[in-house]
Amino acid sequence: MDFSLTEEQQLLQDSINQFIEREYTFDDRKKFLDSEKGFNEENWKTFGSLGWLGMPFSEDDGGYNGGPVDVMVIMENLGKGLIVEPYVPSILLSGKILADLGSDDQKSNYLHPMISGEKIISFAYIEPQSRFNLSDCLTKATVSDDGYVLDGYKALVHNASASDTLIVSARTSGNQCDEKGISLFLVDANAKGVSLRNYSTIDGGKASELTLENVTVSKDSLLGEIDEGFSTIDNAIDLATLGICAEAVGIMGKMNEMTLEYTKTREQFEQKLSQFQALQHRMVDNFMHYEQSKSLLVMCAAKMNDNTEDKKKALASLKYQIGLSGKHIGEESIQLHGGMGVTDEMHIGHYFKRLTTIRTLYGNSDYHLSNYASL
Amino acid sequence: MYNDVVYFALNYRGVLMNLSFSKEDQEFQQEVRSFIEQNYPSEIKEKQDQGIPLSKEDTVKWHKILNDKGWLAVNWPEELGGTGWTITQKHIFQNELAAANTPTLMPFGVNMCGPVIYTFGSDEQKEFHLPKILNGDIWWCQGYSEPGSGSDLASLKTKAEKKGDVYVVNGAKTWTTLAQHADWIFCLVRTDGSGKKQEGISFLLIDMKTPGVEVKPIITIDGTHEVNMVYFDNVEVPVTNLVGEEGFGWSIAKFLLAHERTGIAGIPSLKRELDRLRDITTQIQVGEGSLKDDAMFMSKLDRLEIKLTAAEYTELRTLAAMSAGGHPGPESSILKILGTDLQQELSDLFVEAVGYYAHPFMTEEDLASNESRIGPDFAAPVMPHYLNYRKVSIYGGSNEIQRNVIAKAVLGL
Fold first, then answer.
1. What pLDDT digit, counting tens, does each position of B56-84 carry?
2. Same domain, A254 and A368
3. How many domains are there within chain B?
4. B381-409 exposure pattern, b = at least 16 Cβ within 10 A, e = fewer
5. Do A50 and B9 touch (CB under 8 A)?
6. Where is the domain boundary, A97, A120, A143?
7. Which of A86, A120, A154 corresponds to the end of one domain?
8. One domain for residues A213 and A259
9. Which domain does A41 fall in, by range?
10. Would residue A329 count as lying in a domain?
11. pLDDT per residue as tens digits for the range A60-87
């Protein structure tokens, strides 16, 4: 058994941390958030030139053949810096779908420019009624003379306003919750009938509600086979789930660090907060939550290429734990910061908000616990 | 600006952490498995599987079987009878023993006193004691806690005064597990009352047959006699039974705390017991179905299983760090807390599972008798076990003390 990172993975980790230290102070981050797209395009290009964006893709696709452990290393460290650039929605979701299903043309038009940092592509799959069920899809695509016509509504499409192109899931056959009958389409964000209602999310991100009204797309907009999109969506969400869990572990580690630091500085009753045993034990519990999450993260990263049931079980365990520990560490960190913890000025609250959205993203603890039970 | 990463961008190849067993490890696992199959006495196995308390003879028998094979003192140096196994092999070995539900061996000799003696003892002590610890001829017990010294162990008062070639020992030890069966006791005693309380403590080996040693039972809430008071009334102990120097006892105690603590979480047994509980849920009738159909109960099992997996991988990460040259140190405190939490939660789920049949009061004699039990066989030991396991978050340094250790040693508070 070997849990250690390779020299190259260490180097990758160091380079991300260096980037955050030099280019991503909290003031920088605030400027990025306040910009129109909600992130910095120069950063995105830097990620591309450093190879981070190409990490999960094969050499044939212009990537670096990275595996789940590499994704884990990237996301854990991006989490520490509370990076808002859309690595998960664009690379781990849309990128993964394009890599799995894209034709040569589709890859060279969409995947390659994305890997080099020139393009963002968002994935629209959540619907108001679907909650966490990936096969619940009401948006419809019907065959027309020269392609398909899409009608429907998608919720919480991350970074859609920064994307020229969207990947949209739509039902081409079957009933509302059937796995079979879901197809994936590339849709021009400026096409007639596409409208976006853009908003900021509570964690500093950008998202949109997407309405599709009689949107015509060409035949070659279809990704992969008709009716067969589900397993690709499922696999992409699995990878993205590993990604946000790693991000959460990075965030939780950072929150624990910040809380320790704060209690070692703040004084009440003529002593440092860190000297009160009642608080020490709570910080120990936070630390243990972090260790348990980290252990399941490492286990899951190592099992991502195992047979499907082992992988699914590992993911369900991990996301369940992240939901549990994310709540514990998140809420306790705020409490241990006292009144300062609820101010916008302190960094801790911003980590808390991202951690809190991660708890729900791609299924909350209850959802993953029931997945676990069904395996 | 980020030139250092060009190297990886050009040469990067994804590498997966390797968490699987090598071919050699798998062969080793098979070897352990077939050894247990061929050598685990069926009469002991039967008792274990039915939750019948083992006699001292049963435990000693299994101890000797492992020792004859050379698989007893797993962690000892090879030249003294250890195995020289890798971390992975030790992990496999413990898992296989637990899966087969073999008896838990007393840790006081092999895991505690043995390492102290071969690390700090005199040549005479090594020559006399180590072989007897290995072949199970001498049973040890541990004399640490006192009526006035629980978590604050260093405040201990049992006095050892040097008079000629003996120490005269006076005082009392408590919570002494299985002292009623023990031949020898290793004790922390006070040889100096002046100065810092930690500095006047010494480590003394005492023959339980020495005049003035008296053992009195403490009956615990599960109705069993597991722990004792041990009184010392002018007990004369040869000075040659002192381990290390006078005043060195506290250092030895700390060495023992950090040493041989891997495995303290009891994860392999937890896995076996969790599987057993899953199996039991199918045997407990509820209406026309079984407890297995109760989603709320089963959800608690699933949650516990995930927590167990997290603890297991935390232990593996700790072991891996140790094999890479690190020290177990404060990480064993995390494992102690996680493991004992799990042990207690699981013992509670067993009680919940069997419902009313946790209520009949089953003494050790009842459990051992041939008379049929009240309710299902698996129900009888459940409540005594739950009650008995209140101890695990208290002993070995209470879980509050473990949190103090982590706060200080890991978090720097």
1. 999 999 999 999 999 999 989 999 999 99
2. yes
3. 3
4. bbbbbbbbbebbbeebbbbebbbbbbbee
5. yes
6. A120
7. A120
8. no
9. 7-120
10. yes
11. 999 999 999 999 999 999 999 999 999 9
Closest CA to B113 of B207, B209, B205, B201: B205
Q: Which of A51, A264, A295 sits opposite B8 (nearest CB)?
A: A51
CB of B335 within 8 Å of a chain A CB? The answer is no
Question: Count of CB contacts below 8 A, A vs B?
Answer: 157
Domain shared by B234 and B151, yes or no: yes
Q: Find the domain containing B239 and state its range.
A: 140-249
Same domain, B273 and B398: yes
Nearest CA in chain B to A367: B299
Residues A129 and A249 both lie in one domain: no
Q: What pLDDT score was predicted for residue A358?
A: 98
Task: Residue B19: list chain A partners with CB under 8 A.
Answer: 1-3, 299, 302-303
Mutate to test the interface with B, among A7, A283, A288 (most CBs of B within 10 A): A288
Listed in sequence order, the DSSP H helices in chain A are 7-23, 26-34, 41-49, 68-80, 96-101, 104-106, 112-115, 230-265, 277-303, 308-336, 348-360, 365-374
pLDDT at B326 over 90: no
Q: How far is CA B100 from CA B64, B92, B94, B276, in A?
A: 17, 12, 10, 12
Residues of B in contact with A1 (CB under 8 A): 18-21, 87-88, 91, 316, 320
Residue B35 domain-assigned (yes or no): yes
In order, the DSSP letters of A81-143 are TT--S-IIIIIIIIIHHHHHH--HHHIIIIIHHHHTTS--EEEE---TTTTT-TT----EEEE
On whether both A98 and A78 belong to a single domain, the answer is yes
Q: pTM of the entire structure?
A: 0.92
* Same domain, yes or no: A87 and A186: no
* Residue B256 domain flag: no
Question: Has residue A182 been placed in a domain?
Answer: yes
Q: What ipTM is given for this predicted complex?
A: 0.92
CA triple B21-B324-A3, angle to 5 deg:
50
